[in-house]
Amino acid sequence: MKIEILTTPACSNCSIVEKILDGIGTSYDVIDVTEHPEYLEKYPIFTAPGIVIDDKLEFTGVPSKKELINKLSQR
């Protein structure tokens, strides 16, 4: 499973998502969309973070820990 967090500089909500994923022992990549604008073309997010799981945008903003675990367990 590939998880990407689409972030922007100084995104405080992004660190919340990182802490949730760290807490459940899930690996992920952090993508700064200001450095990689091609991600915005593929995943048009208006709120950071965007959470992409296996190349599908699953969440924008901060999901609850339960929502995130449920989504990951479906994979």
Explain what you see.
By secondary structure, this protein is an alpha+beta fold. It has one domain (3-73): 3-Layer(aba) Sandwich (Glutaredoxin), CATH 3.40.30.10. It is built from 3 helices and 4 strands, in the order βαβαββα. A hairpin with a 2-residue loop joins strand 3 and strand 4 (56-60). The longest helix is centred in the N-terminal third of the chain and has 12 residues, at 12-23. The model has no long low-confidence stretch (mean pLDDT 93).
Query: Please, how many domains?
Result: 1
Instruction: Write the CATH homologous superfamily.
Output: Glutaredoxin
Query: Roughly what fraction of the amino acids lie in strands?
Result: 15-25%
Mean pLDDT: 93
Distance between the termini: 7 Å
Query: Quaternary arrangement of the chains shown?
Result: single chain
H/E element order:
EHEHEEH
Q: Short summary of the structure?
A:
The protein is of the alpha+beta class and 75 residues long. Helices cover 35% and strands 24% of the residues. The longest helix has 12 residues, at 12-23.
Keyword list:
75 residues; alpha+beta; Glutaredoxin; four-stranded mixed beta sheet; 24% strand
Set out the fold topology:
Elements: E1 3-7, H1 12-23, E2 29-32, H2 38-42, E3 50-53, E4 56-60, H3 65-73
Parallel strand pairs: 1-2
Antiparallel strand pairs: 1-3, 3-4
